Recover the amino acids of this structure.
């Protein structure tokens, strides 16, 4: 038995196996600055082939905001069927409060994250407070300034939050994301550091089951073995696909590009790919340099 992972030139050769797709956004459809033309063209091919397409993103924003941003980047609304975001999942859980964890949170939260994400909690029956001393929990959407700060800048903040026993709701489990040619830290990096201190974190988004359940609900009548996922993160996209029991295809040029030694114009090294996947404890169905037909 070999641990070699198939490497594809495009997804078109395997697309006929499936009736539905769950696609990541950052690193697959766009890089935060511009859409990838081959990926946008691939979306059109999915539509033409009758493959239902849901975009599943760990964006800590409501899906309608992501729709607008995608249009700005050149991804038209008619190119896909629906969007599910970790922001949507966070709001739904906080609105229902039908489990012991969310039901016990209280109603006052400290907002940890950049101003662009402040709309996440808009219109909900919660009050934002300026000081940890007044909060009953933390809503974490990322670093205040992800262009300059690191996790180390939050040592004192996380220590105080832990001392106060504040639960943290992480609305973006990603550790990092590709923005243009740079990698920037995400909410998951702060959540991971908080857990390392003994803090309690509740995650909404990939790779957790509720994110995939929300997608499957949109695929009524389609068997799970006819659904596939595409993403650039082994820790969220591929791990999530593995846990959900569906095929998962890795876009190698995303956040693992440097780790895989993938330089522009160069072929993906199969041995390095297999070793990297083993190190992360996940296995994609196959890998491709970029999402293309």
């Amino acid at each position: 038995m070999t641990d070699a992972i198939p490497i594809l030139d495009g997804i078109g050769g395997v697309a006929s196996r499936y009736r539905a797709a769950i696609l990541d956004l950052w690193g697959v459809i766009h890089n935060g600055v511009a859409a990838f033309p081959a990926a946008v063209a691939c979306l059109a091919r999915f539509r033409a082939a009758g493959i239902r397409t849901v975009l599943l993103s760990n964006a800590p924003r409501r899906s309608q905001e992501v729709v607008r941003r995608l249009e700005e980047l050149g991804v038209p609304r008619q190119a896909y069927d629906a969007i599910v975001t970790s922001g949507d999942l966070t709001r739904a859980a906080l609105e229902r409060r039908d489990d012991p964890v969310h039901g016990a949170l209280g109603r006052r939260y400290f907002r940890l994250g950049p101003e662009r994400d402040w709309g996440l909690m808009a219109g909900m029956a919660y009050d934002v407070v300026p000081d940890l001393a007044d909060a009953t929990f933390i809503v974490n959407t990322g670093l205040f300034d992800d262009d300059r700060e690191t996790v180390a800048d939050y040592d004192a903040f996380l220590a105080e939050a832990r001392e106060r026993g504040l639960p943290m709701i992480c609305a973006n489990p990603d550790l990092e994301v590709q923005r243009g040619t740079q990698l920037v830290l995400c909410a998951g990096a702060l959540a991971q550091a908080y857990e390392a201190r003994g803090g309690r974190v509740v995650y909404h988004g990939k790779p957790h089951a509720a994110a995939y359940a929300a997608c499957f609900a949109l695929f009524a009548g389609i068997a799970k073995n006819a659904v596939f996922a595409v993403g650039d993160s082994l820790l969220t996209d591929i791990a999530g696909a593995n846990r959900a029991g569906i095929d998962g295809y890795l876009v190698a040029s995303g956040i693992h590009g440097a780790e895989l030694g993938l330089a522009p114009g160069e072929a993906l090294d199969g041995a390095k790919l297999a070793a990297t996947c083993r190190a992360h404890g996940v296995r994609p169905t196959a890998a491709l340099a970029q999402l293309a037909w």
